[in-house]
Amino acid sequence: MAKSTMDQDLLRVLYSEEQIRTRVQELGDELFEAFRDKNPLFVGVLKGCFLFMADLVRACQIKSEVEFIAVSSYGNGYESSGNVQITRDLQYDITGRDLIVVEDILDSGNTLYFLAQYFKTKGARSVTIVTLLDKPERREKPIKADYIGFTAPNEFVVGYGLDFKQQYRNVPYIGVMKPEIYENDD
Ligand code: IMP
Ligand code: MG
After folding, report:
1. What digits encode the pLDDT tens for the residues 56-108?
2. Residues whose CB is less than 8 angstroms from the CB of residue 100 and which lie 6 or more positions away in sequence, other chains included
3. CA of 37 to the centre of ligand 1 (A)
4. How far is the CA of 49 from the centre of ligand 2 (A)?
5. Burial of 128 (0-12, 13-18, 19+ CB in 10 A)
6. CA atoms in the 13 A half-sphere facing the CB of 41
7. Domains, the chain, with CATH or none
8. Is the pTM of this model over 0.85?
9. CB-based contact 150:130 (threshold 8 Å)
């Protein structure tokens, strides 16, 4: 294993690199069958999606395009505020397109509820949501993902793109953060 100055802040590994790799390939295969004739547009929700998106599009070898949107919704380091703002908008016209929206985690649902409506308003023909992690217990908005990597427990997790205050995104697995790290934070 590579050296790390971050492992010590994590309580335990929730999903290993191997588990993630296997599951991402399964999702890629499912999307392949569902979208093989549709020329979909993958839309990653930055920044959390960046590793998942990179692996998912390679696991799904169909003719497609890749786009990103960036949003911010965080009130503090670990909970969404419900006030979702687009900080980097789409650069493509999505009218009539079949979108595959790629998110790191579906938590309160505020972000994806907002984005699903936004994409419909912009004329998308269909909006399919793929999330690596789903925390259904925390849902505040009526929104479901069409494809889910793992249904996660109600704990704060980092790694494989997921952050705490912009850090830990480069941890190669998904780990549970030690609560004292974020609870002692302002
Ligand atoms: P939602 O709007 O509450 O559904 O939250 C979606 C966003 O919150 C995700 O894209 C993540 O960036 C962030 N988030 C939610 N739970 C976690 C977590 O356990 N770790 C890191 N980020 C999280
Ligand atoms: Mg995110």
Report:
1. 999 999 999 999 999 987 665 566 667 899 999 999 899 999 999 999 999 99
2. 31, 35, 40, 41, 42, 43, 64, 128, 130
3. 32
4. 7
5. buried
6. 20
7. 6-73+84-183 (3.40.50.2020)
8. yes
9. no
